[in-house]
Amino acid sequence: MADMLRIGLSALLAQQRALAATSNNIANANTPGYSRQRVDLAERNAERLGTDFVGTGVYVGGVRRLDDEFLATQVRIAAAEFSRSDAFASFASSLDNLLADQQTGLSVTLQSFFDALQKVADDPASAAARQVFLGEARNLTSRFEGLDGRLDDVSAEANARIATIAAEITSLGANIADLNKQILTAGVPADGAPPPDLLDQRDRLLGRLAELVKVDTAQQSDGTVSVFVGSGQTLVLGTHSAELATVSSAFGAGEVELVLRGSGPDITVTPFVSGGELGGVLDFRREMLAPARAELGRIAIATTSTVNSIHRNGMDLAGDLGADFFALPAPQALPAATNAGTVAASVTIADVAALQPHGYVLHYDGANYSLLHSGTGAPVATAGTGTVADPLVAEGLSIVLSGVPAAGDRIAIDALGDAAGGISLLVADPARIAAAAPTRTRTALDNTGSGTIASGTVFDAAHPQLLATATIEFIDASTYSIDGAGAFAYTPGADIDVNGTRVRIEGAPAAGDQFFIEANLGGVGDNRNALALIDGLASGQLDGGNTTLHGAVARLVTEIGVQTAETASRRDAQGLLLEQSQQKLDSITGVNLDEEAADLLRYEQLYQAAAQTIAVADSLFTSLIDVLRR
Amino acid sequence: MRITHDTLRSSFLSTLERAQERLLRLQTQVATGQRVNRPSDDPFAAARIGELNASISRLEQYQANGDVARTRLGLEEQAIASIVDNLQRVRELALQANSDTLGNSERAAIAAEIRERFASILGLANAGDGAGNYLFGGFSETTVPFTATAAGVVYNGDAGQRFLQISDNRFIAVNDSGSELFQRIPDGNGTFTVAADPANTGSGVLGQSTVSDPAAYVADDYTIEFLNGSDYEVRDGGGALVVAGTYADGDAIVFGGVSIELDGQPAAGDLFTVSPSTSQDLFTTLETLISALETGADGDAAHALLHTGVGQALADLDQAAEHMLDARSQIGARLQAIDQEAALVDGFAFQMTQTLSELRDLDYAEALSALSQQLFGLETAQQSYARLQNLSLFRFL
Q1: Where is A404: in which H helix or E strand?
Q2: Where does A3-162 show beta strands of DSSP type E?
Q3: Which residues on B lie below 8 Å from A564 (Cβ)?
Q4: A107 vs B53: CB contact, 8 Å cut-off?
């Protein structure tokens, strides 16, 4: 009977513990990061009774926390991937409609500019048409500026996001190190597990960390966990954690760099960090934002420098030669703050058609300069030595170096990144629009031959004799002189270049026939230079002349659209994957209330049965006492 | 697999989220009527839509350019038509004045009317486009093209011709300069001109002159000199004798591929010159005619000079009228070209608009049926989740 009492009591206690665990599970069913717990019951050692063994009851073998390190790792990997795509996609969608809006998109603005130019060509003397054109030109520069400003905002937003995430990673690392310490202090029983609430907390922090950046973890035998970011840089080691900080880049330009700050010197980890929200923002900045800015800059530079170069070949209403129409920003060349030497670079755009939409880093290794693609780090072929006489030439840029370089010195070169925002309109007076060509032609009235001369085009407005009257006189039907000198063979329709003007004579001129090239003074109805501008802007300006401005805009819109659509669909796929791995983990660690209800019933029944055992033991004892009392 | 309550909840929520996202997209499409609302909806279509919008705008601009050109050329055509009418009237007047029955005062009256016509033609040559620009000034649109001076009418414009773009690769001239239209008019018969020496004393009157043999004609300044009433010598610019002949009243003088009709009786020492045609401006032709008519013609010799002068003026007027009609038919050809290009451009624009609509616009039937399908799916999911939530063992405890 004493045995029965003892056995019953052990059962009561065991079921109480089990009921307590079940209640705890129910209580924490909605607690994030909670892993359900189960009481492991075991039978007590049996007692020997002669030749037999008799059971002595039940005891609680332990409270087990149900988890699965493998599945938890899977979830963390999936979360890092999902967060990366999610961050990328949400930043990408902010660029999505930037260029393609049907009312305000870049194509529409460019076309309005071209159309306004056509109106000037329709009626070059009209002040109204010229005013409209200036308005459209202003509109174009402010559109470029607006787009660049929007990209600037996105860039600033990305930088701020990076800083916030880095701070959160630092704080998570510190918390994990702290939990490691608590787990160490709590002490791990030789055959048991560390306190489950601490483990739950640490897992939750690791899960959050994985959403921010891709991490590698290593479980140590003492119960602590070490965390590594990037390519194995330590964030948490045992009870110590490092700080992930943001610093401005060595070139002082807008982008921030990530450094890991521990006991030693700072380690730059920007290129190594991947995955998670941080990786997503960094990838967005590198793969989408920087190329988009550079391409926008390239389109802006191509548009405005084309207008400038043709406009300079024209003549305005006052009879003055055309000046630059737009002011273009100078390319940036920023030496790194860490440079030991004094090398500096002065960069100019030599060939717009050869420009490529990315920046560069010029690196000096102690003997030679090498030019690297700023995004991929791939080397770019160069020619020249970098002196004024023989500049370093690569992809449309001409680089002149000065100062004394030291090995390891770097210069960031960017001709396009900020270009779109730096363009301004130089012409404010509608009369200053050079719609006319500076020279025109005239045929002497007493010519007897049938030769005709076209109005001609100006190819070199800087020619000192451009505006001087030149006479082409035919010595005979097949030979002509220019200003009384020379005897040139006449080919009908061939180009004749005189003082920067190119003319063509056709037909059969007779001896003594004269053609004149003279300044186009008062030629306010001339639209030749406006037509040249239209033609120049409609023809290929980029990629060696193969891509038109409209083509480049369309390509940029497509690229941004494709990247946005791609990352959005990748995010959806990663989301499903994350959901699946989370469900798998939950199927081990999560609480099922029906199951707990069943357990509740089970343990309650058992508790009642055990209580009944005690009652029976009591009744047996009473029976015995009663017998003895008689 | 073991399903936890949280799994049920989170998977329901993510399903709900996805369905709502699809609904939002469909709803945006239906609200805007456009299939592509952001480039990521269909990147290639989005870029194409941008290009098509730009192209359509460009084509519309070509149409507008064509309209401008049509207006300009229409104005020019009207001016030229009026000039031709005036020239016609001047020609009639000149014929009338050429009659021997008219006296000096009657000719002076006719000259006065021609002077009126002259003024009218000068006015037409200075016609404007209604916006303050002159039609016939070349590039110098804002300068009065022709001004009358003591030395005659001078041209202040230039030879410029403006072209407008009316399609991707078609440019059309929208003006003709005053120098081409009014000044570059060949005189005489277009190959050579004949003239009588004002000092002639005989009654020889030059009639029609033609190139009888273009191959034999050599451009030079020839002189026909009558040695007496019938014998003449033709000498070239260098003084070399080309041909010597005998003339009877009404005979043509033929040499070196040219044939020159002569009437009346030249006197000894009378000179007639034959020189290659050059350009003579219309106003000079008219001035010459007027001064010929205003010069009193008394006596045979003077009459002969008058007839020769008026005859030459008539030839010059015919050249001028022909030149104007040429210009007019060129303008007609340009107007026709504008119409043709406009039709082509219209066709392109229509096609592009259709393509644009196919790329951009929403198929409402499809979108609305998808929308109702999505809504149905969403409602069903919500209902089933609510039912599932009721299935708890705790309800039975």
Answers
A1: none
A2: 37-43, 47-49, 52-54, 58-65
A3: 38-40, 43
A4: yes
